[in-house]
Amino acid sequence: MKNSNVRVRFAPSPTGYLHVGGARTALYNYLFAKQHGGSFVLRVEDTDEARSTTESLVSMLDDLSWMGLKWDEGPAPKTLDEKGDFGPYRQSDRKEIYFKHINELIKDGRAYYCFLTEEELDAQREEAKKAGEPFRPNSPYRDWSVDQAKEKIDNGEKPTIRFKNDHGEKLYTFKDLVRGEVSLPASMIGDFVIARSNGMPVYNFVCAVDDALMKISHVFRAEEHLNNTLRQLMIIEALKMEAPIYAHLSIMLGGDRQKLSKRHGAASLTDFKEKGYLPQALSNFIALVGWSSPSGEEILSMEQMIKEFSTERLHSASAVFDQEKLKWMNAQYLREMNTEDFFKRSKEFFKSDWKFPESGDWREKSFSALKSSMETLDDAAPLYEMLKLGGELDLNDQAKDVISWESTSKVLQVWKGLLSKAESEYINPEQIDGLINTVKAEAEVKGKFLFMPIRVASIGKAQGTEIKDLIPLIPVSELVLRADKLIG
Ligand code: GLU
Q1: Interior CA angle at 460 toward 399 and 420, to 5°?
Q2: What is the pLDDT of residues 366-389, one digit of tens each?
């Protein structure tokens, strides 16, 4: 058990991929818990049976783990085995608990069985619309006794259960850590459904009950749930439970100020992972979309963020997610990576049949020469593809054109001849100019007729990355092989 009373939760609905907005919510919860020596709980909000899948849950938990966010209670990644004293943590396993409280509310006259059909509700909606009034369900079953209702149920009817909102004009006022004092009038809503006719309680009910039962002290969640807080506070009040402190986080927007979506390039953690972003960079970056560090620093490790996180610096205005800036930040992290970690993480971006020189020294050398040309791990693949062993060069049209030039075969002959005489395993950067000058003299060509064939024979490309960075990373024997294949 932790000795702090701070308990926060991240409560995803496993109905798809984890959005970066959700990842940021999880991160803020995590930072707050760690800063206070509290507990970070992972609760699975899977009461929407039709849309929730185990596959989505597993992928969300994997993504959170990838980001380095470890929760103290809840289902473990992969196995989904649960740990913690407040379980079960999947709401689909908590139905009995919910119905115990629903029955209590029914008994106390705070909730009732409602047999209004969809058609009847639609008619009421239509009437309200005609009268220009907000729709509030008007249920004739509101004041029925439980026995009356039970009789209908025994006859096979399946009611919803509605919460009786009899709070008139009462204002529900709470202090939101992001938005300051928020007042929501009870009259905003009518009697609302807390359990569907299929016997499943709804989000607002289960969320309120679980926050209270799991002794959640602070709720950091998306702004879109602000209005739900009214229903949740009513439920918590009716059950004589204690409400958490809320913090409703501003929305994350794309550059066009629309909600961030795949249209903006990437939106789920899976998208960013696949594009070769590093988890540390992504965590650092998303922390700063909606929060700023008191030190004004931008590159912040998880430890620093834990230390510096403060709810006072959470912005209430929506924040733009600038993918270009994320790229820049990722490049900073990439440059600081250690070689082993780089190769481990890049593996999935490289084709499995690519062979590279074995020595550890080569790895160091190649990474330190190439890292400044990469912003993401995805950028590493085309660079390293030029270094793979085996003599295969995948020539584009421009490169093929270079090979067809009349003077090219002479250049390649001379180039190959010089390489074959080299005594070391690799050409070092200082030798390259000398070699090229010798080719120039012996083949009697200059300018593009000199450089381009050498580029194509070395890396398969007529343009692009500086060959001086690449040639010293390709064993001489491989350079000979490549030239040989082109000479044919
Ligand atoms: N399951 C909700 C969602 O994914 C979370 C709501 C909450 O944090 O209260 O949006």
Answers
A1: 120
A2: 999 999 999 999 999 999 999 999
C-alpha 210 – ligand 1 centre gap (Å): 12
What atom in ligand 1 is closest to the CA of residue 203? 1
Residue 2 pLDDT grade (very low, low, confident, very high; cuts 50, 70, 90) = low
The single-letter code of the amino acid at 432 is I
pLDDT of residue 453: 97
The tens digit of pLDDT for each residue in 227-274 reads 999 999 999 999 999 999 999 999 999 888 888 888 887 789 999 999
CA dihedral angle for residue 278, residue 284, residue 286, residue 287, rounded to 10 degrees: 160
Instruction: Report the separation in Å between the CA atom of 12 and the middle of ligand 1, taken as the mean of its atom positions.
Output: 6
Q: How far is CA 349 from the centre of its chain?
A: 19
Output the CA 22–ligand 1 centroid distance in Å: 9
- Integer Cα distance of 18 and 147 in angstroms: 45
Q: Quote the pTM value.
A: 0.92
Distance in angstroms (rounded) separating the CA atoms of residues 196 and 368: 60
Distance CA(423)–CA(421), nearest Å, equals: 6
Q: Which of 20, 51, 225 should be mutated for ligand 1, with most atoms under 8 A from CB?
A: 225
Task: Ligand 1: list residues with CB < 6 Å.
Answer: 11-13, 45, 207, 221, 225
- Would 94-249 and 397-487 be classified into the same CATH topology? no
Domain 94-249: give its CATH architecture.
3-Layer(aba) Sandwich (3.40)
Given a contact cutoff of 8 angstroms between Cβ atoms, the answer to whether 102 and 111 are in contact is yes
pLDDT at 3: 63
How far is 287 from 298, CA to CA, in rounded Å? 10
Look at strands 171-176 and 74-75 and give their pairing: unpaired
pLDDT at 116: 97
CATH of domain 397-487: 1.10.10.350
pLDDT recorded at residue 89: 98
